[in-house]
Amino acid sequence: MNFNFDVLRSAPVNTDPFPYFMAQGVLSEDDLAEAIRDFPKLDMAGLFLPEAAEYGTSFARLLDILRGPELRQIVGEKLQVDLTGRPTMVTVRACAQAKDGRIHSDSKFKLATVLLYLNEPWEADGGRLRLLRSPTDIEDYVGEVPPHGGTLVCFKVTPNSWHGHKPFVGTRRYMMLNYCQDASVRNNEEARHRMSGRIKKVKRVFGVGKVGAA
User: How many helices and strands, by DSSP H and E, does the chain display?
Assistant: First the structure.
C-alpha cells in the first residue's frame, strides 16, 4: 500500500471561509481496488467504527497510514494546528441514505477532519461534498469534492466549517479521521459509536436500515 503524501504536501490550502485542502490520487488504481475490496462489509447507513465489520489487510494498512505520524505532520502544518499528542478517531461509512448530507459543522471536540473516499469513479450529482459559506444554503459553496476513490479532503473544525452534500442513496464509502481535543472525549465518542452500531445491527436483522447499492 503506497500512499502519495507528496500530492498532499503540494495541495494548496484555502482559507475562505475556513481552512481546508483537497487532493486527488493519493492511492494508485491498484491500491484503490484493493482498499475497496477489503473495506468493511457494511450495507447499512451511518458511521461505524472499523471494528464493526470484518475487513481485509489493505484496509488495515490504510488505517495505520491515517493514524500515523506523517499525515499528522502534514495536516498540522497545512492547517496551522498543533496536533502533537492529540488522540485520533477513525470511523467509516459504506452507504448513504436520503437524509444524509444535511449541512452541519463538526463537533467541537474535533480539531481537524480528514475524509478519504474509496469509491469507483463518481457520476452522480448527489453525494458530492460541498464546503459552504452558509449553514442554510447548499448552493452557497466555495468548493465541491466528488467522492472519487483516492480523493482526500481535510479541513480545520471551526464554528463556521459548514459542509454537506445533495441527497444520494447507495454505496458511498469513506474513511473519516478526526484529531480530537483529548482522549476522554474521544473514548466517549467511540463508546457511543459502538452502542449505535450494535443497535443498527439488531435493526438490520429485521430489515431496518439496509441500503441497497446505487
Answer: 5, 8
Residue type, 132: L
Alpha-carbon distance of 23 to 7, in angstroms, equals 6
Cβ neighbours, 10 Å, residue 80:
10
Q: What are the structural domains, with CATH classification, of the chain?
A: 5-205 (2.60.120.620)
The pTM of this model reads 0.94
Q: Look at phi and psi of residue 53 and say left if phi exceeds 0, alpha if psi is from -120 to 50, else beta.
A: beta
Per-residue pLDDT of the chain (214 residues; tens, 9 = 90+): 899 999 999 999 999 999 999 999 999 999 999 999 999 999 888 999 999 999 999 999 999 999 999 999 999 999 999 999 999 999 999 999 999 999 999 999 999 999 999 999 999 999 999 999 999 999 999 999 999 999 999 999 999 999 999 999 999 999 999 999 999 999 999 999 888 888 877 766 656 566 754 4
Secondary structure class of 76 (helix, strand, coil): helix
**What is the amino acid identity at position 190?**
E
Q: What span, in angstroms and rounded, lies between the C-alpha atoms of 42 and 54?
A: 9
Q: What amino acid occupies position 97?
A: Q
| H/E segment holding residue 145 | strand 141-145
Is residue 169 classed as helix, strand or coil in its secondary structure? Answer: coil
Residue with cell 488504481: 29
Q: How many Å apart are CA 83 and CA 73, to the nearest integer?
A: 8
